[in-house]
Design goal:
This protein has a domain at about 45-115. The protein has helices at about 5-25, 45-55, 60-70, 80-85, 90-95, 105-115; strands spanning about 95-100, 100-105. By secondary structure, the protein is mostly helical. Bound molecules: heme C. Heme C binds near residues 71 and 82.
Length: about 120
Amino acid sequence: MNRKTWISRLVTATLIIAGGLSLSSCEKYTWAKQEVPQDLIVSFTETLLPFCKSCHGSWSTDRTYDKLFANVDTVTPASSRVISIHSSITAFGSEMLPIDTLLLPATDVIKLWASQGAEKN
Ligand code: HEC
């Protein structure tokens, strides 16, 4: 075996090992759904209002609240109309909202707010 072949084999072996290592390191990163803490309070003013306004920019605070309040179900938050109205608007469904250090799906935030009594907080 000449020197050139030896070097190329060494390089190939190194690449295979490095590749294997980098692949196995992927196992550490899994995408788990973030748990919503039980005591997390959702604020209409801080969290939901700016979100609604990002699309319904012309609505006043009162109008936005009325529209939202009229379309959430505080008893069964998952069947809130505001979610079904927007189900075909992809940007709505995939939007994540920051609360404290968390980043939660907008629909979960709305459901949580509804379950907390849909207050103008
Ligand atoms: C990603 C953009 C987007 C976001 C965010 C969004 N909407 Fe909408 N919404 C729309 C579009 C588009 C329509 C359908 C067209 C229309 O009526 O303006 C709509 C329709 C509606 C309707 C039915 C029509 C009406 O005027 O009564 C309501 C109620 C509504 N949205 C409330 C809300 C509330 C409350 C929020 C905040 C939780 C919100 N939307 C956030 C895009 C958005």
